[in-house]
Structures
1.
Amino acid sequence: MTRARIFFTGVGGQGTLTATTLLARTALDAGLPVTSGEIHGMAQRGGVVESTLLVGGYKSAIIAPGEADVILGFELLETLRALPMLKRGGFVVGNSEALQPVGVCLGRECYPPLEAVLETAKGFAAQVVLVPCISLAEQAGTAKAANTVLLGAAAACGALPFSVADLTRSIEKYLKPKLVDVNLKALALGAEAAKAGQAA
């Protein structure tokens, strides 16, 4: 049986919970038992959103520090903050583009450079894949599909117990018809970025 503990982190408005639900449905369609939970859910736009997805028969939706097989980071700083959740040798797949918090925009705080986040992540993970999710989503047709770009990258690099084809079926089955085409494009662009080594 395929087993995986996946920790999602991002900020409000990025579709973190939508991505969690889509993966949960993909697992159920594959006949895999799944447990999911929100840690800080439904945050206001810009607030932290964290969720968990445990595939393969876990009884609790809780992931303790050092237990996650995969971190899916929808925002660069939140990916950095979530690294202690990862087990040694796990996967980090994240958005390389920042959504700067208010404190940074006002000049009160500093945002870490991409290179520093990447180096820190490499100290925790066996594999780190960072892709420009927002830019690729805009290429697909809307920045709102950045979450699907990230899922495509994660599936393509082997971080998920599902293939890009599995996610394609889920998008076609579960998303509103008007959202299917743009999300399929976003999924493909994310997968191509991960495979082509465009990841940071």
2.
Amino acid sequence: MEIFDWQGRRIAWERAGSGPAVVFCHGTPWSSWLWRPFAEALSAEFTVYLWDMPGYGRSSKDAEHPVDFGVQTEAFRALLAHWGLDRPHVVAHDYGGCVSVRAHLLHGVPYASLLLADAVVIPPSGSPFFRLVKEHPDVLAQVPPYIHEALVRAYVSNASCRELREADVDELAAPWLGEDGQAAFYRQIAAYDERYLAENEQRLSAVDVPVRVLWGAEDTWIPPAIGERLAAGIPGATFAPVGGAGHLVQLDAPVALATELRAWLGVSAGLPGRVER
């Protein structure tokens, strides 16, 4: 793991492999851990990059630092410049969709391709629990740690349409436990502002990179119809449901997702032996 110091924040990141650059963006309440197995599998043919947004995962969670979509987009743009990447392939899940799309639309960051999986890009978004926390962040932030842990574990488990392994729930919940983690959990939900998503939708026609939209067919957090509307708003974008997957498509349908990723990136990067789908 390496650290990028940016505006007082410590952004954790890692890189592996060789070949065309592929950057993975996570969402909430997740971290780069969700993408790690896929990055490792692709590292034989690509240079893969993982990072944790400020306020998430292994990155700093200082209370004085805003964590809204605008800040995360600026952080992503700065990190890409730090890496010296020109037109990387970008793979984004959940909030990572908004961050990557806004970097492209508002700041002109060029990509070779963009794959969006169950992405938060256009409204509406958020599970019922997310919206409850959004309305009462100060109250829930004060619950005893054992209740908070139970809430977080139930919340992350609800994103799956399968029964998650206990070890996976442990990994997903771990960044949000302890005094700093608990405060950061409610702070990042309180920072959610749907106006960013409305602005994205108004600008979608300006996206000028190849886009693939994947969606868990059983996603109850953000219904597939939102994904279809997202793809329809982007010129040339394609949409595909992922059977047997909820919002946590990485854990619900890893084989199907890995197959989609390799096929999409193989075609987008022009690697030999791949037929366009």
3.
Amino acid sequence: MESPVFENKRFDLNEFTGRTIKGVSFLNCDFSRVDLSETQFVDCIFYDRDREVGCSFRSAKLKGASFKRCDLSVCVFNFASALGLEISESKAQGADFSSASFMNVISSKSWFCSAFINKSNLAYANFSKVNLEKCELWDNRWTGANLAGASFAGSDLSGGDFTAIDWHSADFTGCDLTDSELGDLDLRTVNLEGVKVSRDQMSDLAARLGINVLG
């Protein structure tokens, strides 16, 4: 039996809310403003390889939604409400998360973020101006991602690949970076207050400055 395929389709606002969707292909589909709260997508494809286009989740409600083993390459998540969003073991190369919100604002001075993004390929994705503080973001590939104006303060970024990113463009204070590939991180120019790294990582970073760490 062939897997279901939706192509060039605009979905109704509550068509998938709270459902579990498995093994479905969505090619050039429009989820803009759709309520996907608590919806689970498993082994789904949202990338049209022939046309090299993804789906649009612009301004969608993604509170508590999850994507497991999905292909989200070049999908658009601009302005989505994504508190508690989970993306795991998925492809999201070139996906655009700029201006998406992972925050729950309680008052002008009280808020928190929640996201679980792990074991996924985020190469060349756009996270500009996104707040992902104190979130679970481990074992991801961030190669070449746009992190301009983003904040990851206090998040678990362990096991990540940060090759070819601009360390100056985002806030990494208080992050767990253990077992991560740190690319061209320069201790002299990046604020690493509260950051966790392993002894081997520290030795490598110090060696770039001509310092040998013993023991």
